[in-house]
Amino acid sequence: MFRPMHFEIHADQPERAVRFYSEVFGWLFSKWSGPQDYWLITTGAVDQPGINGGLMQRRDPGGATYNTVDVPSVDEFLIKITSHGGTIALPKMAIPGVGWLAYCKDTEGNIFGIHEADPSAK
Fold first, then answer.
1. 2 in helix, strand or coil?
2. What is the pTM of this model?
3. Backbone dihedral region for residue 98 (phi beyond 0: left; psi -120 to 50: alpha; all else: beta)
4. Alpha-carbon distance 17 to 23, whole Å?
5. What is the DSSP string of 27-86?
6. Listed residue (41, 43, 37) closest to 12, CA to CA
7. In this structure, are residues 102 and 88 in contact, taking their beta carbons and an 8 Å threshold?
8. What are the residues whose beta carbons fall under 8 Å from the beta carbon of 96, sequence distance 6 or more?
9. What is the distance between the alpha carbons of residues 66 and 97, in angstroms, rounded to a whole number?
10. Distances from the Cα of 62 to the Cα of 11, 74, 118, angstroms
11. Separation of alpha carbons 28 and 94, rounded Å
12. How far is 119 from 100, CA to CA, in rounded Å?
């Protein structure tokens, strides 16, 4: 079995996207000193489940990547996301026996999911 080990977010205004993800999820960004602007994203401690990623200037206007982020409360994060300039693309819904899921758009128009584990979700 192969698991995702990196993700990339493409942004029209990378600095704005860095602000959004830093403020909403507390992710850490460090600018790479390579031949192009690229930010490495640390999403959590090495001993926690999850993956890290990168952020770069959007090159393909039709390209999209959907990642889902584990959160303690979908309701709280929907408020947090919209208060930081994001929008709700698909409202909170139950995944029976698994949890709650909603899809949102960040400040760059990228769609991402947020998931709250809850085995009693119906």
1. coil
2. 0.82
3. alpha
4. 10
5. -EEEE--SSS-EEEEE-S-TTSS--EEEEEE---TT-----EEE-S-HHHHHHHHHHTT-
6. 37
7. yes
8. 121, 122
9. 22
10. 12, 28, 34
11. 30
12. 9
pLDDT at residue 103 is higher than 80: yes
Cβ atoms < 10 Å from Cβ of 116 = 20
- How many residues would you count in the chain? 122
The 8-class DSSP code of residue 107 comes to T
* Rounded mean pLDDT, 33-61: 90
CA distance from start to end of the chain: 30
Q: In this structure, what token pair is assigned to residue 71?
A: 């959160």
Q: Cβ(51)–Cβ(41) under 8 Å?
A: no
Q: What is the pLDDT of residues 54-64, one digit of tens each?
A: 999 998 787 66
Q: Check pLDDT > 90 for residue 19.
A: yes
